[in-house]
Every structure is written in structure tokens, then in C-alpha cells.
Design brief:
The protein is mainly alpha-helical and 96 residues long. It has two domains: 1-35; 37-96, no CATH class. The chain is 46% helix and 6% strand. The protein has helices at residues 5-27, 42-62; strands spanning 74-76, 84-86. The protein has a two-stranded antiparallel ribbon. It is elongated. 2% of the residues are buried.
Length: 96
């Protein structure tokens, strides 16, 4: 089957849009592989969350959200729920 330019472009566009829609739908599907782990020990959860927080700071810095309030990320401490971990205000994430 031979397609004209506009028909071929429409077919490519439909294919890309279909793949994008399936990708977005699957991105939000949670299962045991995509859900956050469950912890019995709050100290193990604390270790996991600190590691994830450090990763988040690096990702924010990579995309330019490293200065002032633009890079604000907060995590509640599982060991002491009245405490939160916050990057220092006004300090670049690359310095923390």
C-alpha cells in the first residue's frame, strides 16, 4: 500500500499519539514493582527516604530548580513524625 505524504504523516501522527496515550496510561498503573516499598522498621524507611531525597535534589538541580524556593522539597521523618527534612533555603541543591 502506497500512501501520499499527507496520509503517511497522518498515519505516523496517529501511531505516535497512540503510543503516547498507552505510555501515559501505563505510567500511573501501580503494582508491586512500581509502588513504594513497605517497611516494618522506621529506621530502614528513614534510610530509604534520605536516599530518595538526595536523588530528588540532584534531579531538581539538573533541571535548574536548585535555587531558592524553586527547588523546595520536604519529607517527613518516619522516626520522628514532628520533624521534616528540608533543603536549606537559599542554598543551591548542589551544595547540600
Amino acid at each position: 500500500m502506497l500512501l501520499g505524504c499527507s496520509e503517511g504523516a497522518a498515519l505516523v501522527r496517529q501511531t505516535i499519539e497512540g503510543r503516547r496515550a498507552r505510555s501515559l496510561a501505563n505510567r500511573h498503573a501501580a503494582d508491586e514493582n512500581t509502588s513504594p516499598p513497605k517497611f516494618n522498621d522506621p529506621y530502614e524507611e528513614r534510610k530509604y527516604l534520605k536516599h530518595r531525597l538526595a536523588i530528588a535534589f540532584r534531579i531538581f538541580a539538573q533541571y535548574g530548580f536548585a535555587e531558592n524556593i524553586a527547588g523546595h522539597i520536604t519529607v517527613r521523618d518516619p522516626v520522628d513524625p514532628s520533624s521534616f527534612w528540608v533543603n536549606p533555603f537559599g542554598l543551591c541543591s548542589q551544595a547540600t
